[in-house]
Structure formats: structure tokens, C-alpha cells
Design a protein that fits this description.
About 55% of the residues lie in helices and about 10% in strands. It is mostly helical and about 110 residues long. It has a two-stranded antiparallel ribbon. It starts with a helix and ends in a 12-residue tail after the last strand.
Length: about 110
């Protein structure tokens, strides 16, 4: 039985839950990969952000719920620049650079 066949045999609610969990896992992997591509550990990123390693781990695990300002700071700390692509119903794509955000309280040293 393939994954598609298995999912087809399940309820719509179950399939939606799997879809959401899959999206979360893909985003978690992508956020962690940013750090990995820079050959940095969570501890090294934490030092650069002046946070604990556990907070950096939480950011990576809860990527779907991280504030945009926190994600911008995380990406900037890794030397990257974050932008948002908006796909309009017309087919037009608009890219919005996300820079110069004020840091949120959630990302400050606790």
C-alpha cells in the first residue's frame, strides 16, 4: 500500500491533520537547514542572538508559530536576508523584502 492509498482510506480530518503536520516538519527542516548551511550549532546561533540554546531549539521546532520579526532576526544572524513572496490570484508575484524590523520582546534574553 502506498502512502497515497493509505491516506485515501482515511477521513478528511485525518488527511488534513497529516497535511498540517507535514507542513510543520518541512518548515522545521528548512529553518534548521539555514543554520546547518552556515556550519553553525544551535549553541553558536544562540550566542550570536544572546539567547540560550534551548530558545534557539524552540524556534526551530515551533517554526510555524514563530513571529515574523523573530524569524527575520534569526535569518539575519545567519547572514541571510528574508523576503516574502506573495502570489496573487492574477498570477502576479510580488516579493517583499523583510528588513529593519524592530526586535520583538519574545526574542530578547530571558
Amino acid at each position: 500500500m502506498t502512502l497515497e492509498e493509505f491516506l485515501a482510506s482515511k477521513t478528511p480530518e485525518f488527511r488534513e491533520k497529516v497535511k498540517k503536520e507535514h507542513s510543520q516538519m518541512v518548515l522545521q527542516h528548512a529553518i534548521s537547514r539555514l543554520r546547518y548551511e552556515q556550519n553553525l550549532t544551535q549553541e553558536e546561533v544562540a550566542r550570536k542572538l544572546q539567547l540560550s540554546q534551548s530558545v534557539v531549539g524552540k524556534i526551530e521546532r515551533n517554526a510555524m508559530d514563530v513571529k515574523l520579526t523573530d524569524l527575520v532576526r534569526y535569518v539575519n544572524t545567519l547572514g541571510g536576508k528574508l523576503s516574502l513572496q506573495v502570489d496573487l490570484p492574477s498570477g502576479k508575484k510580488i516579493s517583499v523584502p523583510l528588513t529593519n524590523f524592530e526586535h520583538s520582546k519574545a526574542f530578547r534574553k530571558s
